[in-house]
Amino acid sequence: MRRRARRVRAGGLAVLLALVVVTPLAPAGAGSATAIDVSPGLARPSPPEPVRVMLDDTYPPYSFRAGDGTLQGILPDLWALWSQRSGIPVQLIGLDWAEAQRRFNAGEAEVLDTVFHTAERDRIYLFSAPYATIEVPIVFEAGLSGIRDAAALRGFTVGVKGGDACIDFLRQRGIDSLRPYPSYETLIDGAARGEIRVACIDRPPASYYLVQKGLESRFRASPPLYAGEFHWVVRKGEDRLRETVQAGFDRISPEQRRRIVEHWLGEPLRSNLDPQTVQAVGLALLGIGLIGVLLLVWVATLRRQVAAKTRDLTQALAELSAGALRFRTLFDVINDAILLHDAESGAIRLTNRRARDLFGFRGGANDGGLTLADLCGDTPPYDAAAALDHLHATADGPRRLEWLARHRDGHPLWVEVDLRRVVLDDSGPQVLAVLRDITARKESDEQLARTLDALTRSNTDLERFAYAASHDLREPLNTLVRYAQLLERRLEGSDPSIAEPLGVIATAARQMMRLVEGLLEFSRVDAAGRGFDPVDAGRALTVALGYLDQALAEAGATVEAAPLPLVAADDTQVIQLFQNLIGNAVKYRDRARPLRVRVSARRDGAMWEFTVADNGIGIEADYLEQIFVIFKRLHAHSAIPGVGIGLALCRRIVERHGGRLWVDSTPGQGSAFRFTLGAVPEAE
Ligand code: ADP
């Protein structure tokens, strides 16, 4: 195998030498083969055998012919460097690609370059690592559209380069209508002539030839159908050879490789400045740019803020003037008079319409110098000095007072004044005075007080008179009664014409005596001491029942008494109350049924409510109030002894204790007299 390879190589070398001689004369066209010897080691004593490398010679910028037919490009330069590094001469044989493969397969070279990987090739070649990625697009006439992938090629005859990996790619996708050309250049020429409208071409040679031939505007490229990778290969089984070749490439640094590639592909544009300066200038420019952007943002923000502030202020101003108008209107329609004083000097800063009306002033809001003295009288404690003292005293808190002011025409005015310290602006504390005219109330209060005074006086006079009269009347009446009784006894059984009138006189005298005693008792109610002691109402009832014992027995009455409480009262008067009420129950009983009296009490807040209920004759609704008037008796009961003082006395006693007395009654069924007395406070 090895020997055969040597033979083939020797034969190839002879052909190669012949070709090297003819190459400069031969046109650099399709199908021509060129070999160049780039090895530097010919002068060595035993030069190693050259390695023949076959490759596509129409694949710019990797491998293509110069105008003079010389093979040039990235790969020739790389292989030259490889030869230098490895010390092995290299012979490059540039051919049409299909031819190159055919002849390589025929053993005419050791290495085949510019090879894409395909499954078929994988069976016969040993591949190097990929060294370049090549995009493979569809090149199509600019007038066509929608050519974006292999599927879009159906119905077209697709131009391809003979032996190109693209042929397999398209066939696998069912695109069989292919027209092969020997090289990319002939393929482009065919397209330019209109033989084909679409072609599958690797991007680097496509770009190169389209530009070179001025066709770039007539054709477009689709997105890559696929991306292939360039490898060099040796035949299967040539592992050592591959290692040798690879070792040579390993000695080429990435930097050297990059320089070669850049030489053919072109370098990125660089400035003359050194990188540090460029970096510094770049950073500075970036900084300035950033500051500029920040400034712009800041200015825009400020503008926005100023605009918003201006809007707010304009609105606030409008609201303020509307607010001031609203305030002035409200201030003037308020029914209370309002004055705003300086808290120190008492000077009047502001008055509302009602205030000016009240004091009889006309004019502006503070009446052009209206002073405290204008509103006050001259007499203490209602003079201007006292008024100022009240204003100063608001430092300790708000206050309310009644004040005798003076109207502009001099007449006095009673006002109720609320004073409150306020801080409305930066001119210092002020005192808000709200005034209500209470002259009418004050006058009626005074009137009432005078009337009360007069009433109290006349009441006292009357009480004194009643007491004196009844007290002084008792003596002569007693005498009258005594002598009438004496005469009655002496004349007993004698002339009825004398005895009868004498009896009437005696009865009238006794009635008058009862009246006088009742009156006396009535006038004495208030004479008792004011202080109330705890009184056991149950005991008072027992005492009262004792006094009524005989009458109750005669009436065959039953008295039921619930437990009764302690009350704050005058005990004699409580006894009097029970005695009068139960006495009346006896007097006004229904004789058709036995009398039953029930006494009970229930708590009602701070009071106890007592009830003395009977099953007597009852009282008509019209008279429920009248019966409490002194000397008021119901005509129907004229046969029953009485003077009409009992209930009036009871009411007076109860009212003196701060309670009430009233009656609920149903005629024919009975009455319930109720009265309230104060409970004994808990502490007691
Ligand atoms: P008097 O009993 O001396 O007439 P009072 O002031 O005690 O005077 O009573 C006034 C009136 O009230 C009585 O005349 C009577 O008509 C009526 N009255 C009082 N107590 C009762 C009662 N328990 N039942 C019905 N009527 C009563």
If you had to describe this structure to a student in words, what would you say it looks like?
- With 684 residues, the protein is of the alpha+beta class.
- It contains 19 helices and 27 strands.
- The strands form 6 sheets. Strands 1, 2, 6, 7, 8, 9 and 15 form a 7-stranded mixed sheet that branches. Strands 12-11-13-10-14 form a 5-stranded mixed sheet.
- The longest helix is centred in the middle third of the chain and has 59 residues, at 275-333.
- Mean pLDDT is 84; it is low at 1-35 and 38-44.
- Bound molecules: adenosine-5'-diphosphate.
- Pfam families: HATPase_c, HisKA, PAS_8, SBP_bac_3.
- Residues 399-450 form the PAC domain.
- Residues 1-28 form the signal peptide.
Q: Note the quaternary state here.
A: single chain
Largest sheet: 7 strands, mixed
Give the bound compounds: adenosine-5'-diphosphate
Global geometry: elongated
The overall number of domains is 5
CATH homologous superfamily (4th level) name of the largest domain: Periplasmic binding protein-like II
The total count of helices amounts to 19
Strand content: 15-25%
What is the level-2 CATH architecture name of the largest domain?
3-Layer(aba) Sandwich
- What is the residue-averaged pLDDT? 84
Transmembrane segments: 280-301
InterPro entries: HATPase_C_sf, HATPase_dom, His_kinase_dom, HisK_dim/P_dom, HisK_dim/P_sf, PAC, PAS, PAS-assoc_C
Keywords: ATP-binding, Kinase, Membrane, Nucleotide-binding, Phosphoprotein, Signal, Transferase, Transmembrane, Transmembrane helix
Domain Histidine kinase: 468-681
Topology:
Blueprint: H1 2-22, E1 34-37, E2 51-56, E3 58-59, E4 63-65, E5 71-72, H2 74-86, E6 90-95, H3 97-105, E7 111-115, H4 119-124, E8 125-127, E9 132-136, E10 138-141, E11 158-161, H5 165-172, E12 178-181, H6 184-193, E13 198-200, H7 203-212, E14 219-221, E15 226-235, H8 239-250, H9 254-265, H10 275-333, E16 337-342, E17 348-351, H11 353-359, H12 372-375, H13 384-393, E18 399-406, E19 412-422, E20 430-437, H14 439-490, H15 496-524, E21 533-536, H16 537-547, H17 549-555, E22 558-561, E23 566-569, H18 571-587, E24 596-604, E25 607-614, H19 646-656, E26 661-666, E27 670-678
Parallel strand pairs: 2-6, 2-7, 11-12, 11-13, 22-24
Antiparallel strand pairs: 1-6, 3-4, 4-5, 7-15, 8-15, 9-15, 10-13, 10-14, 16-17, 16-20, 18-19, 19-20, 21-23, 24-25, 25-27, 26-27
Keywords: ATP-binding, Kinase, Membrane, Nucleotide-binding, Phosphoprotein, Signal, Transferase, Transmembrane, Transmembrane helix
Enzyme class: transferase
Catalytic activity: ATP + protein L-histidine = ADP + protein N-phospho-L-histidine
